[in-house]
User: Which sequence fits this backbone?
């Protein structure tokens, strides 16, 4: 399989985004089967017991340095892992390494009120519940009904009792819960460019610039709601699995223009050392972004980890209008 089978315009755009030194690795990542990553759920079982269960099935996971309770297996082990009782009964959750970084960087604490604004299927929600030791309150919001039911089932199966699920449009949450949350996670709906795989043509079959523009508008509405739902002093972690600046730097820059000095971008310190990334872009196709975008980052994919965009914002004062 050749990367050239991907949409030509997508590849041309991506080559403009990714530094030349990283381009061969990023381009080839779309052709490689990726290692299977998962996280042990301490709300359901002792990690040692789960590893013993997997060993009995002939599986020897490798720990991911810097990510608590995270492990990987070869791609060929995926079926055995997902059919294991530990997976079916909620003692582990299959989740990409890049995806696990968002909750870690948001850093929810026991007893806090957390909003997960586009929560399905629930991997990050469950991870935050484990980090909080089921102490506190997580509002997990999902707009799509089919995805909501999957989210709710995952929450029940994994014993995340501090999670409360809501079927509603995340863009409207702030009107019901103005400035009520200590932290907000928005892993926004996006064009999913970082999930493209040549082995799965359906993953990129509907990609277009029109789709990117549509997602960017939706992301802007969700970001506005996220900020208005956040308490002064609180943090917002924005993430997408898209490379497109229109879905990453652009909506964040617009958010900074809207709220001015009430918001600032905080530098990110990744817990992983063996990861490829680049700082947020300062401009794209003639449009300049806020200088602070350099504190956001784009994770670059390889055979172990998918691509991801991450940006952490701090809210300094109330943004509610009288």
Assistant:
């Amino acid at each position: 399989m050749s990367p050239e089978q991907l949409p030509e315009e997508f590849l041309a755009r991506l080559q403009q985004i990714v530094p030349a030194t990283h381009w061969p690795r990023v381009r080839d990542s779309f052709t490689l089967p990726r290692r299977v990553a998962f996280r042990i759920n301490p709300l359901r079982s002792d990690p040692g017991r789960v590893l013993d269960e997997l060993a009995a099935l002939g599986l020897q996971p490798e720990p991911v340095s810097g990510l608590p309770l995270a492990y990987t297996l070869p791609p060929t082990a995926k079926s055995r892992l997902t059919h294991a009782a530990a997976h079916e009964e909620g003692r582990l959750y299959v989740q990409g390494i890049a995806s696990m970084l968002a909750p870690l960087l948001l850093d929810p604490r026991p007893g806090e009120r957390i909003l997960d604004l586009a929560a399905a299927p629930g991997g990050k929600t469950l991870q935050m519940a484990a980090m909080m030791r089921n102490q506190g309150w997580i509002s997990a919001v999902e707009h799509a009904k089919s995805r909501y039911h999957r989210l709710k089932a995952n929450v029940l199966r994994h014993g995340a009792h501090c999670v409360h699920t809501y079927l509603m449009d995340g863009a409207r949450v702030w009107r019901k819960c103005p400035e009520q949350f200590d932290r907000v996670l928005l892993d926004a709906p996006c064009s999913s460019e970082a999930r493209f795989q040549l082995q799965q043509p359906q993953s990129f079959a509907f990609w277009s610039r029109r789709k990117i523009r549509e997602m960017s508008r939706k992301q802007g509405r969700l970001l506005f709601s996220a900020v208005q739902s956040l308490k002064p002093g609180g943090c917002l972690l924005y993430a997408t699995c898209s490379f497109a600046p229109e879905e990453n730097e652009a909506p964040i820059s617009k958010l900074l223009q809207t709220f001015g000095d009430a918001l600032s971008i905080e530098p990110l310190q990744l817990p992983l050392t063996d990861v490829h990334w680049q700082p947020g872009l300062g401009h794209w196709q003639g449009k300049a972004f806020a200088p602070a975008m350099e504190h956001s980052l784009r994770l670059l994919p390889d055979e172990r980890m998918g691509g991801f965009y991450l940006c952490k914002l701090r809210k300094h004062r109330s943004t509610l209008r009288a």
Remarks:
- The longest helix spans residues 209-229.
- The first strand starts at residue 36 and ends at 40.
